[in-house]
User: Fold SnoaL-like domain-containing protein from Novosphingobium panipatense.
Amino acid sequence: MRDDLASRLQALEDREAIRDLIARYGPLADSGEAGDLAQLWTSDGIYAVGGMGEAQGHTAIAGLIEGVVHQKLMQDGCAHVLSPIAIELDGDDAVAVGYSVVFRHDAGEFVVERVSANRWSLQRGPRGWQVHRRDNALLDGTAAARALLSLPVARRRR
Amino acid sequence: MRDDLASRLQALEDREAIRDLIARYGPLADSGEAGDLAQLWTSDGIYAVGGMGEAQGHTAIAGLIEGVVHQKLMQDGCAHVLSPIAIELDGDDAVAVGYSVVFRHDAGEFVVERVSANRWSLQRGPRGWQVHRRDNALLDGTAAARALLSLPVARRRR
Amino acid sequence: MRDDLASRLQALEDREAIRDLIARYGPLADSGEAGDLAQLWTSDGIYAVGGMGEAQGHTAIAGLIEGVVHQKLMQDGCAHVLSPIAIELDGDDAVAVGYSVVFRHDAGEFVVERVSANRWSLQRGPRGWQVHRRDNALLDGTAAARALLSLPVARRRR
Assistant:
């Protein structure tokens, strides 16, 4: 019974840790903390942004934040707002799906810059839960973006 | 003491299950998985969309996703982004309130198509937590939409 | 071991209580429940809105909701949509960071009225977790807004 309680507690802690990890992405991106942001990923982690290729490893992922495109966005004023996520736990692996919406300040107004499907593959290791791979794709009507949202959910409900 | 821990754990698990259930709505809607989406509801569940009537039961709710309006939205590119929710647990019943924001891709840009108040009535049954009734209303200044947001919160704070 | 389980459970309950507290802000604001909204704060709590000064105490915070600016927004139709938050627990204190996005209904469409960084300082007292201070700042490119997002995250990752 005690073991049962402990394993149920562990599952909740895992979900909480994953939720917290993903909730840190936006604040780290929008405050420009490139090094801390990269540490959300494993050392061989991948951030695949649809249409912009893949960044692999901490240096490359930090480079996305340090690069001119993101720095210009920060100067304008931006918010990377991530939605609540649905999470599938599977031992030391997990998948989470949700959305990211980027708002940009432009001439005194806020515009919706990007709306993307997000699929996160996460792993538990010596440093706790980290992102192994994040796939983003603009929800612009393409089947590829919709596919990012469909996998883990379908797996669970069947 | 062990029973106390177990009941506290159960309450957290209930809240987590409800949060996860609601977090699945958007990804299922935007990937067009009508059948799986309908299974979020009980077999007699209702989805009441302000100004568009009520859909009751799995076939009718799946029909909202399979219908021409939603299919057109998916072709354009859309995201049904649901906010975090406030949850009131009451045994095998629960109420949750929050927001849904629908973004649509239009001529290379993203527009805010709809912003709605959401009130969810949930029930725990043999298949776990499911939606018994979801009420949506556009936040367009009408008192009915505001009322959806006010009930469970007021109940708790008094 | 039982104590260990109890303290782990407590930490999850604390995080859940804080998440729920913050999820109530939007629904209370958008349904105009000024008194209940103010009770989210401690009696000496502060709501500091960048560029608009600070409101301290329940009467002053309720006044923000009862004031003409907010009442006009409600008449137009509005949604104060708060993002998921990253939370740092430290005993009876906590810090949470996230975003708030205000949508306004305007001539049949929804516009993005404000996008702000939010930093919450929370305290546990006899009435449970309450907000001690909330700082908001428009993400308009100013360093002050970015700074609100950077603190607790940086503290944790080091």
About this structure: The beta strands of chain C are 41-49, 54-56, 78-82, 86-90, 93-106, 109-125, 128-138. Chain C has a mean pLDDT of 93. The interface with chain A takes residues 1-2, 5, 8-9, 12, 15, 83-87, 97-99, 101, 112-115, 117, 138-142, 145-147, 149-150, 153-154, 157 of chain C (CB under 8 Å).
